[in-house]
Specification:
Strands 1-3-2-4-5-6-7 form a seven-stranded mixed β-sheet, with helices on both faces. The chain starts with a strand and ends with a helix. Strand 2, helix 1 and strand 3 form a beta-alpha-beta unit. Helices cover 41% and strands 17% of the residues. It comes from Trifolium medium. Keywords: Lyase.
Length: 242
């Protein structure tokens, strides 16, 4: 897994996780904004940017990836980078990974910023339909020569286990960001907050103190690229409270 960093002597560390088909370079603009107050690190997730697919032993072997494997790699990387807790900032696929890490590695995660995040599909039938569509897309792209890259990601292995049932137990502060025009992920963000509330009973005020949903105006799914200034402002406010 390839990483890039904007170094600083500050103890605060931000780790940025890109979306599918992206790379760590997608975060450079935002990283520069925070580089004077935090150590900013972005990674190329396996199969993206300059990173190879993890677990591939030969050129003809299909790599085996899962959410757990990717999270474990990142967890080891974070331990190598700093002994302190870090704040994760993830977009789409990266947000899914960040959420998983906030749930599993809470002792190492100070907070998680989830941009256009989804804990996965709740319904088993919907997951099967999605997997079938992904397999169809994969066959089409593989035919054009990207077999080693997409055989793992489009196989759906990374997304098999939804995280909805784990959300009520989340105590790592979450900032859930969605674009104003992204109606699908606005509904998902609201559903995530409602699910988290169910784990705290009637303590809605406690949820609002720990977790927050922010809508970014005049943008769709890629809010951090389409309208970065409000995203930066939301990030700055969230980080100041950690």
């Amino acid at each position: 897994m390839t990483e890039r960093a904007l170094e600083t002597n500050h103890d605060n560390t931000l780790v940025f996780l890109h979306g599918f088909l992206g790379s760590g370079e997608d975060w450079i603009t935002i990283m520069k904004t925070f580089s004077e107050s935090a150590r900013c690190i972005s990674v190329d997730l396996p199969g993206h940017g300059k990173s190879t697919l993890h677990g591939m032993k030969s050129a003809t072997e299909e790599p085996c990836l899962s959410l757990e494997i990717v999270a474990d790699i990142l967890h080891k990387l974070i331990h190598h980078v700093t002994p302190a807790k870090v704040t994760l900032v993830g977009y789409s696929m990266g947000a899914r990974i960040a959420l998983y890490m906030a749930l599993r590695f809470s002792s190492k995660i100070k907070g998680a910023v989830l941009i256009s995040a989804s804990p996965g599909l709740k319904d088993k039938l919907a997951r099967k339909i999605r997997a079938a569509k992904d397999d169809s897309r994969a066959r089409s792209v593989i035919a054009h020569g990207l077999q080693l890259f997409l055989s793992s990601w489009y196989a759906g292995e990374l997304w098999k286990r939804p995280l909805w049932e784990d959300l009520p137990n989340c105590r790592v502060p979450l900032l859930i960001i969605h674009g104003e025009k992204d109606k699908k992920f606005k509904k998902i963000a609201e559903a995530m907050m409602n699910t988290i509330c169910s784990g705290l009973g009637s303590k809605v005020e406690e949820v609002n103190d720990i977790h927050e949903v922010v809508e970014i105006p005049n943008c769709g799914h890629a809010a951090h690229l389409e309208n970065p200034l409000p995203v930066i402002a939301a990030l700055r406010q969230f980080i100041s409270k950690l």
